[in-house]
Protein backbone atom coordinates (compact mmCIF):
# COMPACT_ATOMS: atom_id res chain seq x y z
CA UNK A 1 0.00 0.00 0.00
CA UNK A 2 2.78 2.41 0.89
CA UNK A 3 4.61 1.61 -2.34
CA UNK A 4 1.45 2.17 -4.36
CA UNK A 5 0.80 5.56 -2.79
CA UNK A 6 4.41 6.60 -3.30
CA UNK A 7 4.40 5.34 -6.89
CA UNK A 8 1.75 7.90 -7.79
CA UNK A 9 3.80 10.85 -6.54
CA UNK A 10 6.98 9.55 -8.20
CA UNK A 11 5.16 8.82 -11.44
CA UNK A 12 3.78 12.35 -11.55
CA UNK A 13 7.21 13.84 -11.02
CA UNK A 14 8.41 12.11 -14.21
CA UNK A 15 5.31 11.96 -16.37
CA UNK A 16 5.36 15.70 -17.03
CA UNK A 17 8.89 15.75 -18.50
CA UNK A 18 8.06 14.35 -21.92
CA UNK A 19 4.96 16.54 -22.20
CA UNK A 20 6.90 19.79 -21.73
CA UNK A 21 7.07 20.84 -25.41
CA UNK A 22 3.33 20.24 -25.82
CA UNK A 23 2.54 22.23 -22.66
CA UNK A 24 4.81 25.06 -23.81
CA UNK A 25 3.20 25.19 -27.23
CA UNK A 26 -0.34 25.10 -25.84
CA UNK A 27 0.00 27.57 -22.95
CA UNK A 28 2.80 29.80 -24.28
CA UNK A 29 5.49 29.31 -21.63
CA UNK A 30 8.88 30.91 -22.22
CA UNK A 31 11.97 28.65 -22.22
CA UNK A 32 13.08 29.41 -18.64
CA UNK A 33 9.47 29.81 -17.47
CA UNK A 34 8.64 26.30 -18.59
CA UNK A 35 10.81 24.98 -15.76
CA UNK A 36 8.20 26.27 -13.32
CA UNK A 37 5.88 23.45 -14.38
CA UNK A 38 8.37 21.17 -12.62
CA UNK A 39 9.67 23.56 -9.96
CA UNK A 40 6.20 24.58 -8.81
CA UNK A 41 5.82 20.95 -7.72
CA UNK A 42 9.32 20.46 -6.33
CA UNK A 43 9.53 23.62 -4.19
CA UNK A 44 6.52 23.08 -1.88
CA UNK A 45 7.29 19.37 -1.88
CA UNK A 46 10.79 19.96 -0.54
CA UNK A 47 9.93 22.90 1.67
CA UNK A 48 7.05 21.17 3.44
CA UNK A 49 8.56 17.72 4.03
CA UNK A 50 9.86 18.62 7.49
CA UNK A 51 6.58 20.25 8.56
CA UNK A 52 4.47 17.45 7.09
CA UNK A 53 6.56 14.86 8.91
CA UNK A 54 6.08 16.69 12.20
CA UNK A 55 2.32 17.04 11.62
CA UNK A 56 2.18 13.32 10.84
CA UNK A 57 3.63 12.63 14.28
CA UNK A 58 1.00 14.90 15.83
CA UNK A 59 -2.20 13.90 14.01
CA UNK A 60 -1.28 10.31 13.05
CA UNK A 61 0.68 9.06 10.09
CA UNK A 62 -2.19 7.22 8.42
CA UNK A 63 -4.35 10.32 8.64
CA UNK A 64 -1.61 12.46 7.11
CA UNK A 65 -0.95 9.88 4.36
CA UNK A 66 -4.65 9.67 3.43
CA UNK A 67 -5.09 13.46 3.52
CA UNK A 68 -2.07 13.85 1.26
CA UNK A 69 -3.61 11.48 -1.26
CA UNK A 70 -6.80 13.58 -1.29
CA UNK A 71 -4.90 16.85 -1.82
CA UNK A 72 -2.74 15.30 -4.53
CA UNK A 73 -5.73 13.84 -6.38
CA UNK A 74 -7.73 17.09 -6.29
CA UNK A 75 -4.68 19.03 -7.50
CA UNK A 76 -4.22 16.54 -10.34
CA UNK A 77 -7.78 17.22 -11.47
CA UNK A 78 -7.07 20.97 -11.45
CA UNK A 79 -3.92 20.41 -13.52
CA UNK A 80 -5.91 18.35 -15.99
CA UNK A 81 -8.44 21.14 -16.61
CA UNK A 82 -5.91 24.00 -16.58
CA UNK A 83 -6.38 26.45 -19.44
CA UNK A 84 -3.62 28.97 -18.68
CA UNK A 85 -0.11 29.11 -17.23
CA UNK A 86 -1.08 30.53 -13.86
CA UNK A 87 -3.69 27.88 -13.18
CA UNK A 88 -1.33 25.05 -14.13
CA UNK A 89 1.55 26.34 -12.00
CA UNK A 90 -0.76 26.91 -9.00
CA UNK A 91 -2.25 23.43 -9.32
CA UNK A 92 1.24 21.92 -9.61
CA UNK A 93 2.18 23.71 -6.38
CA UNK A 94 -0.88 22.16 -4.69
CA UNK A 95 0.27 18.78 -6.00
CA UNK A 96 3.59 19.41 -4.28
CA UNK A 97 1.80 20.02 -1.00
CA UNK A 98 -0.06 16.72 -1.34
CA UNK A 99 3.10 14.91 -2.34
CA UNK A 100 4.91 16.22 0.75
CA UNK A 101 2.06 15.15 3.03
CA UNK A 102 2.13 11.65 1.59
CA UNK A 103 5.88 11.12 1.29
CA UNK A 104 6.91 12.62 4.64
CA UNK A 105 5.30 9.82 6.68
CA UNK A 106 5.94 6.80 4.46
CA UNK A 107 9.40 6.02 5.79
CA UNK A 108 8.24 6.13 9.41
CA UNK A 109 5.37 3.75 8.68
CA UNK A 110 7.66 1.45 6.72
CA UNK A 111 10.14 1.23 9.59
CA UNK A 112 7.34 0.51 12.05
CA UNK A 113 5.92 -2.25 9.83
CA UNK A 114 9.28 -4.04 9.50
CA UNK A 115 11.22 -3.80 12.78
CA UNK A 116 13.41 -6.83 12.01
CA UNK A 117 16.58 -5.62 10.18
CA UNK A 118 16.61 -8.25 7.42
CA UNK A 119 12.93 -7.80 6.58
CA UNK A 120 13.34 -4.05 6.75
CA UNK A 121 16.25 -4.17 4.28
CA UNK A 122 14.15 -6.22 1.84
CA UNK A 123 11.22 -3.83 2.20
CA UNK A 124 13.46 -0.85 1.55
CA UNK A 125 14.93 -2.58 -1.51
CA UNK A 126 11.43 -3.07 -2.92
CA UNK A 127 10.55 0.51 -2.02
CA UNK A 128 13.62 1.84 -3.87
CA UNK A 129 12.86 -0.34 -6.89
CA UNK A 130 9.34 1.09 -6.98
CA UNK A 131 10.93 4.53 -7.28
CA UNK A 132 12.85 3.42 -10.34
CA UNK A 133 9.74 1.74 -11.75
CA UNK A 134 7.84 4.99 -11.26
CA UNK A 135 10.46 6.74 -13.33
CA UNK A 136 10.16 4.24 -16.16
CA UNK A 137 6.37 4.15 -16.08
CA UNK A 138 6.06 7.93 -15.77
CA UNK A 139 8.32 8.71 -18.71
CA UNK A 140 6.65 6.13 -20.93
CA UNK A 141 3.08 7.03 -19.93
CA UNK A 142 3.86 10.71 -20.36
CA UNK A 143 4.79 10.13 -23.97
CA UNK A 144 1.92 7.76 -24.72
CA UNK A 145 -0.80 9.90 -23.11
CA UNK A 146 0.48 13.18 -24.56
CA UNK A 147 0.67 11.81 -28.06
CA UNK A 148 -2.55 9.80 -27.91
CA UNK A 149 -4.91 11.96 -25.83
CA UNK A 150 -3.19 15.26 -25.04
CA UNK A 151 -1.03 16.52 -22.18
CA UNK A 152 -4.02 17.13 -19.87
CA UNK A 153 -4.37 13.35 -19.46
CA UNK A 154 -0.96 12.98 -17.83
CA UNK A 155 -2.62 14.57 -14.78
CA UNK A 156 -6.13 13.15 -15.16
CA UNK A 157 -4.69 9.62 -15.03
CA UNK A 158 -4.05 10.23 -11.32
CA UNK A 159 -7.75 10.48 -10.46
CA UNK A 160 -8.66 6.75 -10.45
CA UNK A 161 -5.26 5.86 -8.96
CA UNK A 162 -5.63 8.42 -6.18
CA UNK A 163 -9.17 7.37 -5.27
CA UNK A 164 -8.23 3.69 -5.19
CA UNK A 165 -5.12 4.41 -3.10
CA UNK A 166 -7.13 6.50 -0.63
CA UNK A 167 -9.78 3.80 -0.14
CA UNK A 168 -7.12 1.10 0.23
CA UNK A 169 -5.14 3.23 2.71
CA UNK A 170 -8.13 3.58 5.02
CA UNK A 171 -8.80 -0.17 4.85
CA UNK A 172 -5.28 -1.58 5.00
CA UNK A 173 -3.16 0.79 7.08
CA UNK A 174 -3.53 0.52 10.83
CA UNK A 175 -4.85 3.71 12.48
CA UNK A 176 -2.65 5.68 14.84
CA UNK A 177 -3.66 8.61 17.03
CA UNK A 178 -0.40 10.53 16.98
CA UNK A 179 0.93 12.72 19.75
CA UNK A 180 -1.82 15.32 19.49
CA UNK A 181 -1.77 18.82 18.00
CA UNK A 182 -1.12 20.23 21.47
CA UNK A 183 2.53 19.21 21.08
CA UNK A 184 2.88 21.89 18.43
CA UNK A 185 4.86 22.41 15.21
CA UNK A 186 7.09 25.22 13.98
CA UNK A 187 4.92 26.89 11.34
CA UNK A 188 7.02 30.10 11.07
CA UNK A 189 10.10 27.95 10.46
CA UNK A 190 8.31 26.09 7.67
CA UNK A 191 7.31 29.41 6.07
CA UNK A 192 10.89 30.69 6.21
CA UNK A 193 12.52 27.62 4.66
CA UNK A 194 9.85 27.26 1.95
CA UNK A 195 10.12 30.96 1.10
CA UNK A 196 13.91 30.71 0.87
CA UNK A 197 13.75 27.76 -1.53
CA UNK A 198 11.12 29.39 -3.71
CA UNK A 199 12.98 32.67 -3.88
CA UNK A 200 16.26 30.95 -4.77
CA UNK A 201 14.74 29.12 -7.73
CA UNK A 202 12.83 32.21 -8.84
CA UNK A 203 16.03 34.28 -8.79
CA UNK A 204 17.79 31.77 -11.05
CA UNK A 205 14.91 31.35 -13.49
CA UNK A 206 14.11 35.06 -13.80
CA UNK A 207 17.71 36.34 -13.89
CA UNK A 208 17.39 37.29 -17.54
CA UNK A 209 14.17 39.25 -16.96
CA UNK A 210 15.57 41.65 -14.32
CA UNK A 211 18.46 44.05 -14.12
CA UNK A 212 21.66 43.19 -12.22
CA UNK A 213 20.54 45.21 -9.17
CA UNK A 214 17.25 43.38 -8.80
CA UNK A 215 18.87 40.00 -9.34
CA UNK A 216 21.55 40.70 -6.70
CA UNK A 217 18.91 41.90 -4.24
CA UNK A 218 16.88 38.74 -4.71
CA UNK A 219 20.02 36.61 -4.46
CA UNK A 220 20.88 38.26 -1.13
CA UNK A 221 17.37 37.89 0.30
CA UNK A 222 17.29 34.10 -0.01
CA UNK A 223 20.34 33.48 2.26
CA UNK A 224 18.84 35.98 4.69
CA UNK A 225 15.67 33.87 4.91
CA UNK A 226 17.77 30.75 5.46
CA UNK A 227 19.69 32.52 8.21
CA UNK A 228 16.40 33.56 9.81
CA UNK A 229 15.29 29.93 9.60
CA UNK A 230 18.46 28.84 11.38
CA UNK A 231 17.93 31.43 14.12
CA UNK A 232 14.33 30.31 14.46
CA UNK A 233 15.36 26.67 14.81
CA UNK A 234 17.86 27.58 17.52
CA UNK A 235 15.19 29.36 19.57
CA UNK A 236 11.98 27.43 18.80
CA UNK A 237 10.62 25.17 21.53
CA UNK A 238 9.77 22.49 18.96
CA UNK A 239 11.98 23.13 15.91
CA UNK A 240 11.46 21.48 12.55
CA UNK A 241 15.18 20.77 12.34
CA UNK A 242 17.47 20.40 15.34
CA UNK A 243 20.67 22.26 14.58
CA UNK A 244 22.78 19.68 16.39
CA UNK A 245 22.41 17.51 13.28
CA UNK A 246 24.85 19.83 11.51
CA UNK A 247 27.64 18.98 13.93
CA UNK A 248 28.14 15.73 12.01
CA UNK A 249 30.74 16.03 9.24
CA UNK A 250 29.41 12.88 7.56
CA UNK A 251 25.76 13.95 7.56
CA UNK A 252 26.44 17.47 6.28
CA UNK A 253 28.90 16.30 3.61
CA UNK A 254 26.61 13.50 2.39
CA UNK A 255 23.70 15.91 2.00
CA UNK A 256 25.93 18.38 0.17
CA UNK A 257 27.12 15.67 -2.22
CA UNK A 258 23.53 14.61 -2.80
CA UNK A 259 22.41 18.15 -3.68
CA UNK A 260 25.05 18.31 -6.43
CA UNK A 261 24.40 14.77 -7.69
CA UNK A 262 20.62 15.22 -7.91
CA UNK A 263 21.04 18.63 -9.54
CA UNK A 264 22.86 17.03 -12.45
CA UNK A 265 20.54 14.03 -12.71
CA UNK A 266 17.38 16.14 -12.81
CA UNK A 267 19.01 18.27 -15.48
CA UNK A 268 19.74 15.16 -17.53
CA UNK A 269 16.15 13.97 -17.33
CA UNK A 270 14.64 17.30 -18.32
CA UNK A 271 17.14 18.53 -20.91
CA UNK A 272 17.69 15.03 -22.29
CA UNK A 273 14.00 14.75 -23.11
CA UNK A 274 14.04 18.16 -24.80
CA UNK A 275 17.13 17.19 -26.83
CA UNK A 276 15.41 14.06 -28.13
CA UNK A 277 12.32 16.02 -29.17
CA UNK A 278 13.63 19.37 -30.34
CA UNK A 279 16.94 18.32 -31.86
CA UNK A 280 16.50 14.68 -32.92
CA UNK A 281 12.81 15.15 -33.78
CA UNK A 282 11.37 12.36 -31.60
CA UNK A 283 7.68 12.41 -30.80
CA UNK A 284 6.41 12.05 -27.21
CA UNK A 285 5.92 8.27 -27.29
CA UNK A 286 9.33 7.59 -28.81
CA UNK A 287 10.95 9.91 -26.26
CA UNK A 288 9.31 8.07 -23.39
CA UNK A 289 10.41 4.73 -24.81
CA UNK A 290 13.96 6.01 -25.29
CA UNK A 291 14.22 6.81 -21.57
CA UNK A 292 13.12 3.34 -20.40
CA UNK A 293 16.60 1.75 -20.18
CA UNK A 294 17.82 4.14 -17.45
CA UNK A 295 15.22 3.55 -14.71
CA UNK A 296 14.98 -0.15 -15.56
CA UNK A 297 18.75 -0.53 -15.11
CA UNK A 298 18.65 1.50 -11.89
CA UNK A 299 15.91 -0.69 -10.43
CA UNK A 300 17.70 -3.91 -11.40
CA UNK A 301 21.02 -2.79 -9.93
CA UNK A 302 19.46 -1.45 -6.74
CA UNK A 303 17.66 -4.72 -6.10
CA UNK A 304 20.44 -7.05 -7.18
CA UNK A 305 23.80 -5.49 -6.37
CA UNK A 306 23.71 -2.26 -4.37
CA UNK A 307 23.46 -3.62 -0.83
CA UNK A 308 26.02 -6.37 -1.44
CA UNK A 309 28.43 -3.99 -3.17
CA UNK A 310 28.28 -1.49 -0.30
CA UNK A 311 28.73 -4.29 2.23
CA UNK A 312 31.83 -5.59 0.43
CA UNK A 313 33.64 -2.40 -0.60
CA UNK A 314 32.25 0.19 1.79
CA UNK A 315 29.89 3.10 1.16
CA UNK A 316 32.65 5.63 0.45
CA UNK A 317 34.29 3.61 -2.36
CA UNK A 318 30.96 2.74 -3.95
CA UNK A 319 29.81 6.38 -3.81
CA UNK A 320 33.00 7.62 -5.47
CA UNK A 321 32.79 4.93 -8.18
CA UNK A 322 29.19 5.90 -8.88
CA UNK A 323 30.08 9.58 -9.15
CA UNK A 324 32.89 8.75 -11.58
CA UNK A 325 30.34 7.03 -13.83
CA UNK A 326 27.91 9.94 -13.53
CA UNK A 327 30.65 12.44 -14.42
CA UNK A 328 31.66 10.34 -17.43
CA UNK A 329 28.05 10.10 -18.61
CA UNK A 330 27.56 13.86 -18.35
CA UNK A 331 30.83 14.44 -20.21
CA UNK A 332 29.57 12.29 -23.09
CA UNK A 333 26.32 14.24 -23.21
CA UNK A 334 28.23 17.54 -23.34
CA UNK A 335 29.31 16.53 -26.87
CA UNK A 336 25.88 15.68 -28.34
CA UNK A 337 25.69 17.09 -31.89
CA UNK A 338 22.77 18.66 -33.70
CA UNK A 339 22.72 15.74 -36.15
CA UNK A 340 23.30 13.03 -33.54
CA UNK A 341 21.67 9.65 -33.04
CA UNK A 342 20.15 7.98 -30.01
CA UNK A 343 22.17 4.75 -30.06
CA UNK A 344 25.55 6.45 -30.53
CA UNK A 345 25.17 9.79 -28.71
CA UNK A 346 22.53 9.29 -26.00
CA UNK A 347 22.18 5.65 -24.95
CA UNK A 348 25.80 5.05 -23.81
CA UNK A 349 25.72 8.16 -21.63
CA UNK A 350 22.30 7.20 -20.27
CA UNK A 351 23.54 3.75 -19.22
CA UNK A 352 26.60 5.26 -17.51
CA UNK A 353 24.38 7.68 -15.61
CA UNK A 354 21.99 4.91 -14.61
CA UNK A 355 24.75 2.61 -13.35
CA UNK A 356 26.41 5.48 -11.51
CA UNK A 357 23.19 6.60 -9.87
CA UNK A 358 22.30 3.03 -8.82
CA UNK A 359 25.69 2.77 -7.08
CA UNK A 360 25.88 6.28 -5.62
CA UNK A 361 22.35 6.76 -4.28
CA UNK A 362 22.21 3.89 -1.74
CA UNK A 363 25.79 4.67 -0.68
CA UNK A 364 25.20 8.37 -0.02
CA UNK A 365 21.93 7.49 1.74
CA UNK A 366 23.72 5.15 4.10
CA UNK A 367 26.42 7.73 4.81
CA UNK A 368 23.88 10.46 5.54
CA UNK A 369 21.86 8.28 7.90
CA UNK A 370 25.00 6.98 9.60
CA UNK A 371 26.00 10.53 10.45
CA UNK A 372 22.98 11.01 12.72
CA UNK A 373 22.32 9.80 16.22
CA UNK A 374 19.68 7.11 16.66
CA UNK A 375 17.21 9.55 18.22
CA UNK A 376 17.67 11.90 15.24
CA UNK A 377 17.12 9.27 12.53
CA UNK A 378 13.69 10.65 11.64
CA UNK A 379 14.98 14.20 11.32
CA UNK A 380 17.98 13.01 9.30
CA UNK A 381 15.64 11.19 6.93
CA UNK A 382 13.49 14.30 6.53
CA UNK A 383 16.58 16.43 5.87
CA UNK A 384 17.83 13.92 3.30
CA UNK A 385 14.52 13.92 1.44
CA UNK A 386 14.49 17.73 1.53
CA UNK A 387 17.98 18.09 0.06
CA UNK A 388 16.97 15.73 -2.75
CA UNK A 389 14.26 18.14 -3.80
CA UNK A 390 16.46 21.20 -3.24
CA UNK A 391 19.12 19.74 -5.52
CA UNK A 392 16.58 18.86 -8.18
CA UNK A 393 14.86 22.24 -8.25
CA UNK A 394 18.07 24.30 -8.15
CA UNK A 395 19.81 22.16 -10.76
CA UNK A 396 16.82 22.25 -13.06
CA UNK A 397 16.48 26.02 -12.77
CA UNK A 398 20.19 26.71 -13.32
CA UNK A 399 20.74 24.31 -16.22
CA UNK A 400 17.59 25.25 -18.13
CA UNK A 401 18.40 28.93 -17.73
CA UNK A 402 21.93 28.35 -19.10
CA UNK A 403 20.60 26.40 -22.08
CA UNK A 404 17.88 28.94 -22.91
CA UNK A 405 20.26 31.92 -22.67
CA UNK A 406 22.84 30.32 -24.98
CA UNK A 407 20.18 29.35 -27.52
CA UNK A 408 18.68 32.85 -27.55
CA UNK A 409 22.08 34.47 -28.10
CA UNK A 410 22.92 32.16 -30.99
CA UNK A 411 19.56 32.53 -32.72
CA UNK A 412 19.86 36.30 -32.38
CA UNK A 413 23.13 36.04 -34.34
CA UNK A 414 21.36 34.19 -37.13
CA UNK A 415 22.18 30.56 -36.29
CA UNK A 416 19.66 27.89 -37.23
CA UNK A 417 17.23 27.02 -34.45
CA UNK A 418 18.14 23.34 -34.19
CA UNK A 419 21.88 24.02 -34.11
CA UNK A 420 21.46 26.81 -31.54
CA UNK A 421 19.22 24.60 -29.40
CA UNK A 422 21.74 21.76 -29.46
CA UNK A 423 24.51 24.16 -28.49
CA UNK A 424 22.47 25.38 -25.52
CA UNK A 425 21.93 21.81 -24.35
CA UNK A 426 25.65 21.06 -24.71
CA UNK A 427 26.42 24.01 -22.46
CA UNK A 428 23.93 22.73 -19.87
CA UNK A 429 25.45 19.24 -19.95
CA UNK A 430 28.94 20.74 -19.65
CA UNK A 431 27.81 22.56 -16.52
CA UNK A 432 26.26 19.32 -15.23
CA UNK A 433 29.61 17.60 -15.80
CA UNK A 434 31.28 20.21 -13.62
CA UNK A 435 28.62 19.77 -10.94
CA UNK A 436 29.12 15.99 -10.91
CA UNK A 437 32.90 16.40 -10.77
CA UNK A 438 32.55 18.74 -7.80
CA UNK A 439 30.35 16.17 -6.05
CA UNK A 440 33.06 13.55 -6.67
CA UNK A 441 35.77 15.78 -5.18
CA UNK A 442 33.68 16.57 -2.10
CA UNK A 443 32.82 12.91 -1.59
CA UNK A 444 36.45 11.81 -1.98
CA UNK A 445 37.76 14.41 0.47
CA UNK A 446 35.03 14.99 3.04
CA UNK A 447 33.46 11.53 3.28
CA UNK A 448 36.66 9.50 3.49
CA UNK A 449 36.43 7.31 6.62
CA UNK A 450 38.65 8.51 9.42
CA UNK A 451 40.60 5.84 11.27
CA UNK A 452 40.15 7.10 14.80
CA UNK A 453 40.01 4.98 17.96
CA UNK A 454 36.55 6.17 18.84
CA UNK A 455 34.18 8.51 17.01
CA UNK A 456 33.16 11.86 18.33
CA UNK A 457 29.89 11.85 20.29
CA UNK A 458 28.01 13.75 17.65
CA UNK A 459 29.28 11.71 14.71
CA UNK A 460 28.48 8.04 14.45
CA UNK A 461 30.86 5.66 12.65
CA UNK A 462 30.08 4.91 9.04
CA UNK A 463 28.78 1.34 8.67
CA UNK A 464 29.75 -0.87 5.80
CA UNK A 465 26.14 -1.62 4.97
CA UNK A 466 23.67 1.20 4.55
CA UNK A 467 20.90 1.48 7.15
CA UNK A 468 17.35 2.51 6.36
CA UNK A 469 17.56 4.89 3.39
CA UNK A 470 15.31 7.76 2.53
CA UNK A 471 13.18 7.67 -0.59
CA UNK A 472 15.44 7.57 -3.64
CA UNK A 473 14.33 9.85 -6.47
CA UNK A 474 13.75 8.27 -9.82
CA UNK A 475 15.66 9.35 -12.90
TrEMBL record:
Keyword Zinc-finger listed: no
Principal localisation: membrane
Bilayer topology term: Multi-pass membrane protein
Keyword Lipid metabolism (UniProt): no
Keywords: Antibiotic resistance, Cell membrane, Membrane, Transmembrane, Transmembrane helix, Transport
Annotated region (Disordered), positions in chain: 451-475
All residue ranges annotated as the Major facilitator superfamily (MFS) profile domain in the record: 1-451
Name of this chain's protein: DHA2 family efflux MFS transporter permease subunit
Organism, as annotated: Streptomyces siamensis
